[in-house]
């Protein structure tokens, strides 16, 4: 990267506190495709000059997949360990790159002693656009391009956030097309509830293929996502349909970074 | 006089039987574990008014919403007429409210129009189920009883409305003939068209009118007692069910307090947990679920909106959220019957998990909340699935192999994949 990503440990050593902590998440840290999104979120934060930091190697799984799989012990072990770290750094505000981390920290950590203002990166982008700090200029033009947005379950139905990601796309002057099942009626990509980590049960179709078929009905140039798991499922679907050349699956952070030439 | 006594006996018997059955169901619901749903009464009341009275979640599907609205309004308003039937039945009067004059005519006229709309709506519903065979009404769980149940309800409603209209038609014709006892009262915008097909002799008309009157009221009393055995119970339970529904974000799953104590003790040896009852983690049987889960099961009217939006079900998996609710109700009913027959401590060796709901079903769920969102009366099938998973994982250590591997990775590497925690920040090294 062209700039150094600051860690909480470094900031603390310098006696400083960040405005916001960027919670990267496991997918954002390890998954090659999601790492790109992580770097783009950092580029956006760096570009607008927000004082931010990441936990780096001090970050750990939120426990979301353990909880959804039914292992409440492991979830709470993870949660309490993370809360200890977050509270030790006196964290007030968190932006996450993943709707699952977002939901878990925002809704399930307060009951275990970790109360923070938590936003998803699409909400951050929307706020920055509203404040005029972020525009869509100086980079790739999405003007007139057909974009369809896939609602992640834990952002949409789980937490009622439907508008922020769409606002972030509206600024591009692109042509937003909705899939038949969208917003509160959106169809899952198939990865939630710990499905990401197992083979699907016997059926007649994979869920991500069902979703990709629906997305392709809108004949988009870009399928926009806001979740690293959705990204994996949708990208796999596009590969399976052999449409990689015509249709790009991009995270809203990537689209924003590209539009601003970051 | 005999008729009045017969009426009184029938009414009292019907109410008594219904009360006994309703109390059994409430007792069964109370077999569930406690959960606090008494907070935020104002928000709860508004939710009930919006979702149950206002039917706000029905509008997503406009055609059934429209038809259902007529049946719902018809049900609520035509019941005002039942009040008059009750008084007439007890005191041997006829159309006791006719003193209301113009207002009475307006009311009877509106009831007739509503009765017709209910009739037509139910007929369309029957066509949708049995001729058009909408996919939503089929599925493995919709065979035998659940399938007949729906048809019985619709046919009964059509018969009740027919009896109401023929009763009025006969009455109107008797009024025209100037028959004694049949005072001139009411307006008959619908049943006037039935007058011509009725017999013209006064005695025959009285038989038609009285038969329809008795059929109508006995039908209503019988229908009341059918409710506890039927999916149609939603007409009562929709109200408490929406009132006590979850007000938190759908993505938020409960934190288990019993686990918090153990985890705190593990992380901090000086921590002394508050005394709690040793219970099992998660749910194997219905009595391990919360009372709200059980009330949800009695409220379910098996409309299948949940299943029709379930990504697992859409792609041919075994999981059907509607079946989760129906299994839960069948099982709690069975547990209740065991208590009635053999006493509270009886064990029949069966459980909700495995005997009713299979492992394959619970592991197919993506926890996407589509079923919860789709339910017009705020039922939450996902919570039951999660409780069953908790039991399978925490009490039995029986999760699919790949899930166990993922859990192992989190335990050892603090990530669901097998990567070293030391490499967590490597992403910042590349561009």
TrEMBL record, chain A:
Residues 21-106, 147-234 form the Cysteine-rich domain. It comes from the Bacteria. One of its GO terms (cellular component) is plasma membrane. Keywords: 4Fe-4S, Iron, Iron-sulfur, Metal-binding, Oxidoreductase. It holds the Pfam family CCG. One of its GO terms (molecular function) is 4 iron, 4 sulfur cluster binding. PANTHER family: IRON-SULFUR-BINDING OXIDOREDUCTASE FADF-RELATED (PTHR43255:SF1), IRON-SULFUR-BINDING OXIDOREDUCTASE FADF-RELATED-RELATED (PTHR43255). This is Cysteine-rich domain-containing protein. It comes from Pedobacter terrae. The lineage of its organism: Bacteria, Pseudomonadati, Bacteroidota, Sphingobacteriia, Sphingobacteriales.
TrEMBL record, chain B:
The chain crosses the membrane at residues 6-23, 65-83, 103-127, 152-170, 213-229. Gene3D superfamilies: Alpha-helical ferredoxin, Transmembrane di-heme cytochromes, Chain C. One of its GO terms (cellular component) is plasma membrane. GO terms for molecular function: 4 iron, 4 sulfur cluster binding; metal ion binding; oxidoreductase activity. Pfam families: Fer4_9. Residues 291-321, 355-387 form the 4Fe-4S ferredoxin-type domain. Keywords: 4Fe-4S, Iron, Iron-sulfur, Membrane, Metal-binding, Oxidoreductase, Transmembrane, Transmembrane helix. This is 4Fe-4S dicluster domain-containing protein. It comes from Pedobacter terrae.
């Amino acid at each position: 990267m062209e700039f150094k990503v600051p860690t909480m440990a470094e900031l603390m050593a310098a006696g400083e506190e960040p405005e916001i902590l960027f919670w990267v998440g496991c997918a954002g840290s390890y998954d090659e495709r999601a790492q790109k999104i992580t770097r783009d979120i950092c580029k956006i934060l760096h570009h607008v000059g927000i004082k931010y930091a990441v936990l780096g190697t001090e970050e750990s799984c939120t426990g979301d997949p353990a909880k959804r799989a039914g292992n409440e012990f492991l979830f709470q072990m993870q949660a309490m360990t993370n809360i200890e770290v977050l509270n030790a750094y006196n964290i007030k505000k968190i932006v996450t790159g993943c709707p699952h981390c977002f939901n878990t920290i925002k809704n399930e950590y307060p009951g275990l002693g970790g109360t923070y203002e938590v936003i998803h990166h699409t909400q951050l982008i929307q706020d920055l656009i509203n404040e005029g700090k972020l525009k869509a200029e100086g980079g790739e033009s999405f003007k007139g391009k057909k974009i369809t947005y896939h609602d992640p379950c834990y952002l949409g139905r789980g937490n009622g956030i439907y508008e922020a990601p769409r606002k972030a796309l509206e600024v591009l002057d692109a042509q937003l097309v909705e899939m038949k099942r969208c917003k509160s009626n959106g169809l899952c990509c198939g990865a939630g509830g710990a499905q990401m980590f197992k083979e699907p049960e016997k059926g007649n179709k994979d869920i991500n293929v069902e979703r990709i078929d629906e997305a392709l009905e809108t004949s988009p140039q870009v399928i926009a996502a806001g979740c690293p798991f959705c990204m994996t499922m949708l990208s796999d679907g596009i590969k399976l349909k052999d449409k990689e050349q015509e249709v790009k699956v991009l995270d809203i952070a990537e689209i924003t970074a590209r539009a601003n030439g970051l | 006089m005999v008729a009045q006594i017969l009426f009184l006996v029938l009414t009292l018997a019907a109410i008594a039987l219904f009360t006994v059955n309703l109390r059994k169901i409430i007792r069964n619901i109370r077999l569930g574990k406690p959960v606090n749903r008494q907070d935020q009464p104002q928000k709860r009341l508004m939710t009930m008014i919006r979702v149950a009275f206002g039917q706000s979640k029905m509008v997503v599907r406009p055609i059934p919403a429209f038809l259902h609205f007529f049946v719902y309004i018809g049900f609520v308003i035509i019941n005002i007429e039942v009040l008059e039937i009750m008084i007439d039945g007890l005191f041997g009067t006829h159309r006791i409210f006719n003193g209301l004059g113009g207002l009475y005519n307006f009311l009877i006229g509106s009831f007739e129009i509503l009765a017709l709309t209910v009739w037509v709506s139910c007929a369309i519903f029957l066509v949708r189920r049995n001729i058009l065979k909408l996919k939503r009404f089929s599925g493995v769980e919709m065979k035998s009883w659940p399938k007949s149940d729906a048809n019985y309800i619709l046919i009964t409603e059509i018969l009740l409305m027919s009896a109401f209209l023929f009763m009025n038609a006969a009455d109107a014709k008797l009024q025209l003939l100037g028959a004694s006892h049949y005072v001139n009262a009411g307006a008959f915008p619908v049943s006037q068209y039935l007058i011509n097909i009725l017999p013209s002799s006064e005695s025959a008309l009285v038989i038609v009118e009285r038969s329809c009157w008795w059929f109508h009221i006995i039908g209503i009393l019988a229908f009341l007692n059918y409710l506890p055995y039927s999916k149609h119970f939603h007409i009562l339970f929709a109200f408490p069910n929406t009132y006590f529904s979850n007000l938190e974000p759908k993505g938020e799953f409960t934190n288990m307090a019993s686990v918090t104590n153990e985890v705190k003790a593990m992380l901090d040896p000086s921590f002394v947990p508050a005394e709690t009852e040793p219970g099992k983690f998660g749910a194997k049987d219905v009595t391990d679920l919360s009372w709200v889960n059980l009330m949800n099961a009695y409220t379910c009217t098996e409309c299948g909106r949940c299943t029709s939006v379930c990504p697992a079900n859409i792609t041919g998996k075994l999981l059907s959220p509607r079946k989760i609710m129906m299994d839960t109700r069948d099982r709690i009913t069975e547990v209740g019957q065991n208590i009635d027959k053999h006493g509270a401590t009886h064990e029949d060796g069966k459980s909700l998990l495995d005997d009713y709901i299979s492992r394959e079903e619970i592991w197919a769920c993506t926890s996407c909340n589509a079923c919860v969102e789709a339910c017009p009366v705020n039922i939450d099938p996902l919570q039951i699935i999660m409780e069953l998973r908790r039991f399978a994982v925490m009490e039995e250590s029986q999760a699919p192999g790949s899930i166990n591997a993922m859990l192992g990775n989190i335990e050892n590497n603090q990530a669901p994949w097998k990567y070293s925690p030391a490499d967590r920040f490597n992403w910042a090294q590349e561009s």
